[in-house]
Design a protein that fits this description.
The protein is α/β, with parallel strands linked by helices. It contains 17 helices and 17 strands. The strands form three sheets. It has a nine-stranded mixed β-sheet with strand order 1-2-3-4-5-6-7-9-8. A six-stranded parallel β-sheet has the order 10-11-13-15-16-17, with helices on one face. This is F-box domain-containing protein. It holds the Pfam family F-box.
């Protein structure tokens, strides 16, 4: 045992606790559990075991040897020792089986992606201590499994899903007439009387909001706070305030907070009865909701309506178009802007920078060239205010964008990106905009790049100029 360790162990427990409280709970548990009796007792203090965030465990590298060692320590040594004290848990769904049942061996030969808790009864795989759970999962059946009674004291559940159901698997299920697993889940109509707060964030669009999500919400009779982030597709009408009040809010007599970010897309309505933005907004205001929204009507009469509650407190907002009205979104860190009908001009990106001042990740999807090309020549000092600044942007993706948008962001006469460290771009566009890695006007915004991703691996020439242009580049994913 080295002298520094002896010195630490000589400190009173009260002082050590004060030091450890400044660290992340997971770091304390992973570093100290099992080291010696004194540190073990300190690490297992309720201050560190009540709330456990396992999102630091790298799920995308769970087969690596070093990661396997970490996983075994977390799930075989640490969690069994503290599981009775854990009340608030944040975990990636791919680890959920190991959280509740150690040394689990499942058959992975199923034709469809298996449920996380499939074949594990609520009596075999359960917890009576977890009251707050934040978890990322694959689809809706995983969500239903969690709510079959196995988490008897749960009062707050925050779920992030890729899909309600994977569209590819839905097609196979329907073609082969295979029923959804949700139809077999026991207790799936029981009321969830102890659940007070529920948040559901779904990334991809679904056409099963009415058939799957709404019935689940009807089980939450005592819900006090509800958050929904959804994209709903293939309807004849937009989801508006009247619909949400009739089918959701009116069913929850204890509900006092309703936060939402809802997109209704691929809506084929009557061209003569197309609601306006004011029509949609009015249905929410009449029910006491503070909202904003915008509507896109395409040339083929297909509509898209995006409505969200204000103030907006989520870290992500669903994809926005050129119709986005602006506002202030202080919490949003991740954003995708897309449009298939109109280009994004310089003024649009001014609006984005003002509306999302703390934006960290931006993705641009627009194949339409800009009409008003921003001046490429050196501007006068009094025109410097026209340059857009994204002070916190670290990641930019232009793979689905016209070369004009690469120019828009990399040229420092248009935009300043002092923190940009990761770029996803077509190689040909990067060569064009940087003038084969020699242009001074784009050098500043490229100077701090550490990662560049090109979608195609062929035709890439890493010349001397390439490396000189990106001095911090140490990893390229070609």
């Amino acid at each position: 045992m080295n002298k520094s360790m002896v010195g630490i162990l000589d400190l009173p427990n009260e002082i050590l606790l004060m030091i450890l409280k400044k660290l992340d709970n997971f770091d304390v548990l992973y570093s100290l559990v099992g080291v010696n009796k004194k540190l073990d007792n300190l690490a297992c203090n309720i201050n560190f075991t009540r709330t456990v965030d396992l999102m630091k465990v790298p799920s995308n590298r769970k087969d690596d040897w070093t990661t396997c060692v970490l996983l075994d320590r977390v799930f075989m040594r640490i969690l069994p020792q503290i599981h009775d004290d854990v009340e608030c848990l944040t975990v990636d769904g791919c680890f959920w089986q190991r959280v509740l049942l150690a040394d689990l061996d499942l058959d992975n030969s199923y034709p469809f992606r298996r449920l996380l808790l499939d074949s594990l009864s609520s009596t075999t795989c359960s917890s009576s201590s977890i009251v707050h759970l934040r978890i990322k999962m694959h689809n809706f059946d995983d969500c239903l499994r969690l709510l079959d009674g196995r988490l008897s004291q749960l009062h707050t559940l925050i779920i992030y899903l890729d899909y309600i159901y994977d569209p590819f698997n839905v097609t196979l299920h329907r073609a082969l007439q295979i029923p959804y697993d949700s139809l077999k889940i026991i207790n799936n109509s029981d009321s969830l009387l102890k659940l007070k707060c529920f948040s559901l964030y779904v990334y991809f669009a679904t056409d099963e909001f009415v058939s799957k999500v709404v019935p689940l919400l009807h089980r939450m009779l005592h819900l006090e706070k509800l958050t929904l982030s959804l994209r709903i597709r293939d309807r004849n009408t937009f989801i508006d305030g009247n619909y949400l009040h009739k089918y959701i809010v009116s069913q929850m007599s204890h509900l006092h907070t309703f936060i939402f970010d809802i997109v209704t897309e691929n809506v084929m309505g009557n061209q003569l009865l197309r609601p306006s933005v004011d029509d949609i907004r009015r249905t929410f205001i009449e029910k006491g909701h503070c909202v904003d929204c915008y509507i896109d009507y395409h040339y083929n009469s297909i509509g898209r309506c995006h409505v969200y509650s204000l103030p907006f407190n989520m870290e992500r907002i669903h994809k926005i178009t050129h119709k986005f009205p602006g506002g202030m979104f202080m919490n949003v860190r991740v954003l995708c802007v897309f449009d298939y009908d109109r280009p994004f001009e310089h003024d649009y990106f001014v609006k984005i920078s003002h509306s999302f001042p703390l934006l960290c990740h931006l993705r641009i999807i627009n194949k339409i060239p800009q009409n008003d090309k921003w001046p490429r020549q050196l501007m006068k000092p009094e025109e410097a205010f026209l340059i857009i600044e994204y002070m916190h942007l670290v990641q930019l993706s232009c793979i689905g964008a016209h070369v004009d948008y690469v120019e828009q962001f990399l040229c420092n006469l248009n935009t300043r990106l002092p923190c940009l460290s990761e770029l996803h771009v077509n190689y040909e566009h990067l060569v064009t905009v940087t003038e084969n890695f020699t242009r001074n006007a784009t050098r500043m915004n490229c100077s701090k790049l550490e990662h560049i991703t090109f979608p195609r691996k062929t035709g890439i020439v890493r010349s001397k100029n390439f490396y000189l242009y990106f001095p911090l580049l140490y990893h390229e994913e070609m």
